[in-house]
Amino acid sequence: MERDDIIEYSLDAHHSEEEGKKIRKKIFMVTAILSIITAVEVAMGIIWGKAHIDVNGMGWLSIKIAFIVMTLVKAGYIVMIFMHLGDERKSLRNVILIPYAIFILYLLFILYSESTFIFEVKQMLGWV
Amino acid sequence: MAGEASKAIDQSVLWGGGRSPFSVSYGKMMMWFFLISDALTFGGFLTALAFARHHLADEWPITEEIFFHFPFTHAHLPLLYVALMTFILIISSVTMVLAVEAGHRMDRKGVIKWMAFTVVGGAIFLGSQAWEWATFIAGPDGLISTSADNASLTSNPYGPQLYADFFFFITGFHGSHVLSGVVLNIIVLIRSIQGWYDKRGHYEMVEKVGLYWHFVDLVWVFVFTFFYLI
Asked: Chain B: residue nearest A5 by CA?
């Protein structure tokens, strides 16, 4: 039997030495961005940790949102550059990302509202 | 037209049905399908974590007060070791993408060098994970014993039981992914040394294993934020 993993291969997968240099430069730039974002996250986590600030205030909420935004930026760089999804066809990109995003956002919405409800019931019963 | 090839495709790269959907090879597409299903599992874990910590908000422990240990020192260094682990995993992801790039130039030596670095990075991460688990299980007194002051799936000295359960399940499930990633990387490394991919004419296997390895890194980015930082 002929092995199909040998004959089939993605298109345009080879590149020359000069193109390689350009790609490596891009890789190192993304590395720098990811490292800096991680360093900022850790610094924020230590300086404005939950131990030092009021977790019910607006300050903590904005820090939380900043963490989530930074995480999504990092995830975007990893998926689009490192996993080359940015170089694939737009249709493949949409097939991979859109159903996943819809499902997880829906799940998050359901669980978050249920969780809030459980907390309210506990408050009503005087457990909290 | 979206999804259709805009130029003639070399007959040798078509799938069995005579077409090449999305212009990717069969193996790469199946790796993406697998990664989506795996991402749903991790997404389930992390949203469940959000559910638990939202309704247990008043008793959820403060991460910085638990993860402040650093190997070979007794200094109080909150989050720094986890940050170092994150950094190691990101760097091993970078060496992986450099291996893929070298593969596209059919540079066998480059692939071997960068794959070797990736394996080392993964191994360091796994060792750190084991140390982290041992420290977490030991509990506040730092001694591993059979008594209830150790963290396990049925006891947690730090706070709600769910906190320890989520720690073990999420980092454990991620750690087992890292382990299988390291095994795959070692196989690809050995095969590159043996010259398999030169004979085959392309290094796509490096790319496919690379997709998995980047995914492992991607998951850790989320675990780091949602378990440790927030």
From this structure: B27
- Beta-carbon count within 10 A of A95 CB: 19
Q: Do A9 and B105 touch (CB under 8 A)?
A: no
Contacts of B108 in chain A (CB under 8 A): none
Q: In angstroms, rounded to a whole number, what is the distance separating the alpha carbons of residues B99 and B206?
A: 7
Which tokens hold the place of B105?
Answer: 């130039």
Whether the complex's predicted ipTM surpasses the cut of 0.90 = no
Q: How far is residue B114's CA from residue B151's CA, in Å, rounded to a whole number?
A: 38
Cα–Cα distance, A37 to A18 (Å, whole number): 29
With contact defined as beta carbons under 8 Å apart, do B185 and B217 qualify? Answer: no
What type of residue sits at position A44? M
Selected for mutation to probe chain A from B65, B96, B104, B205 (highest A CB count within 10 Å) is B104
SS3 B148: coil
The DSSP 8-state label assigned to residue B22 in this structure reads G
pTM exceeding the 0.80 threshold for the entire prediction: yes
Residue positions counted in chain B: 230
Q: pLDDT digit of tens for each residue in chain B (230 aa)?
A: 334 444 455 666 667 666 677 878 888 889 999 999 999 999 999 999 999 999 998 888 888 888 888 888 888 888 899 999 999 999 999 999 999 999 999 999 999 999 999 999 999 999 999 999 999 998 877 777 776 678 888 888 888 999 999 999 999 999 999 999 999 999 999 999 999 988 888 888 999 999 999 999 999 999 999 999 88
